[in-house]
Specification:
Elements lengths: L14 H11 L6 E4 L1 H14 L3 E6 L6 H9 L3 E4 L2 H8 L8 E3 L6 H9 L4 E4 L2 H10 L4 E5 L8 E3 L9 H13 L3 E6 L4 E3 L3 H21 L5 E3 L15 H16 L5 E4 L3 H4 L3 E11 L8 E5 L19 E3 L5 E7 L8 E11 L7 E5 L20 E4 L1
Parallel strand pairs: 1-18, 2-3, 2-11, 3-4, 5-6, 6-8, 8-10, 10-11, 13-15
Antiparallel strand pairs: 1-12, 7-9, 12-13, 12-17, 14-17, 15-16
The site of pyridoxal-5'-phosphate has 17 residues, from helix 10.
GO biological process, one term: putrescine biosynthetic process from arginine, via ornithine
EC number: 4.1.1.17
GO cellular component, one term: cytoplasm
């Protein structure tokens, strides 16, 4: 028996912020996500305070809403862009090419050309074919090579494997970049999104250091930049350290490897900036049991894997859930509204929802500002994409 089955709001929002969000949400038809831009503002300041030596390139994929992009533009942020579509969006708001990095290692030659024509001169790569495309379509640009990292097991949403290359290949590519008339500018990595093990940055920076030293000694190439990617934590059910602890530790790793004279440092936060600014509000559609003696209920809600909660895939991200009902809880399976049996958010990790939760009640999914709106399907089972509001 669980007498306090709801997430504790105070762990995620100030009372004032949650009230602001909830007041706004009351009466609006579900499902939707409300994003509190004041929270993003505060989290951006925290990030800058924690990483005063770094340039922030916001990972636009986390949430490309114009309200967020405009705010970050005005605060002086740069942007990590994944596609020409994101490029158009960001440039449409007046951001110039010198504040943009084309961070996707998988891109068409014609898209590289578009970025170049629009003034972008900073490109990520991790393969020879892509590098040769960059040399042709964006001559003379700065390139940084993304390396593979460990940390897959401690990141809730791992990214390595698909992206990055081994250290030796990274060095080969940086030498080739020089030979192709590009500027071999630096090295990047992403330790995995929602990375709970801070040591993952240490291991990655050790590899970067080897590349910096060897290229200088053996090839006379002086790299100028380290892009430490994203991976900083949002606040979900599974605990992480505070951002300040990450910042302190990572500063120590950098000093240990590079001394006081740091190269240019870039970070690309997405989740850590945006997640905790959002609350997704859904409604319970149906509650059932699968047999007369079943020990748990199935709670079906009007939001699911295909309408913003895809990061529940493999139950990777465990969003805190709050309802207005209190009292005794009972373990539930939580599933979405579509006719697809993959549309189950949590089955192994059983959330204890209040026993008196009823059809029509609202569920508040906390820390859902990032990677929800954009992941939402266009028309699966006829359901429209997730609505979003910005306050
Ligand atoms: C290249 C790159 N940078 C930054 C990010 C943002 O990472 P996070 O949301 O963990 O901060 C991502 C996420 O996929 C990415 O692919």
């Amino acid at each position: 028996m669980n007498l306090n089955p709801n997430a504790d709001i105070a762990d995620y929002y100030s009372a004032e912020t949650f009230k602001r969000i909830k007041d706004f949400a009351d009466g609006k038809e579900t499902p939707f996500v409300v994003i509190d831009t004041q929270t993003i503002d505060r989290q951006y300041e925290e990030l800058v305070e924690g990483f005063p030596y770094a340039k922030v390139y916001y990972a636009v994929k986390a949430n490309p809403a114009p309200q967020i992009l405009t705010m970050l533009r005005d605060k002086g942020a740069c942007f990590d862009i994944a596609s020409v579509y994101e490029l158009d969006k960001v440039m449409g708001l007046g951001v110039t090419g010198d504040r943009i990095s084309y961070g996707n290692t998988i891109k068409k030659a014609k898209d590289i050309r578009t970025f170049y024509e629009k003034g972008v001169r900073l490109f990520a790569t991790d393969s020879e074919a892509d590098l040769r495309n960059i040399a042709k379509a964006a001559p003379g640009s700065k390139v940084y090579v993304r390396i593979l990292t460990e940390g897959t097991l401690t990141a809730d949403w791992p990214l390595s494997r698909k992206f990055g290359c081994q250290t030796d290949m990274a060095m080969d590519l940086l030498i080739l970049a020089r030979d192709l008339g590009l500027v071999p500018y630096g090295v990047s990595f992403h330790v995995g999104s929602q990375q709970r093990e801070i040591g993952a940055w240490d291991a990655a920076l050790n590899k970067v250091k080897v590349i910096f030293e060897r290229l200088k000694e053996e090839d006379g190439i002086e790299l100028k930049m380290i892009n430490m990617g994203g991976g900083f934590p949002a606040n979900y059910i599974t605990r992480t350290n505070e951002l300040a602890v990450y910042a302190e530790e990572i500063a120590r790793f950098l000093r240990e490897d590079f001394g006081d004279d740091l190269p240019e440092i870039i970070i690309e936060p997405g989740r850590s900036l945006i997640s905790n600014a959002g609350v997704l509000v859904s409604e319970v559609v149906l509650i059932s049991r699968k047999s007369r003696t079943a020990l748990h209920r199935w709670v079906f809600t009007d939001v699911g894997k295909f309408s913003g909660l895809i990061e529940t895939l493999d139950e990777s991200i465990k969003f805190p859930i709050w309802t207005e009902k209190t009292g005794e809880g009972e373990d539930c399976v939580i599933a979405g509204p579509t006719c697809d049996s993959a549309d189950i958010m949590y089955e192994h990790h059983k959330y204890p929802l209040p026993l008196n939760l009823a059809i029509g009640d609202r569920m508040y999914w906390l820390s859902t500002g990032a990677y929800t709106t954009t992941y939402s399907a266009v028309e699966f089972n006829g359901f429209p994409p997730l609505k979003d509001y910005y306050i």
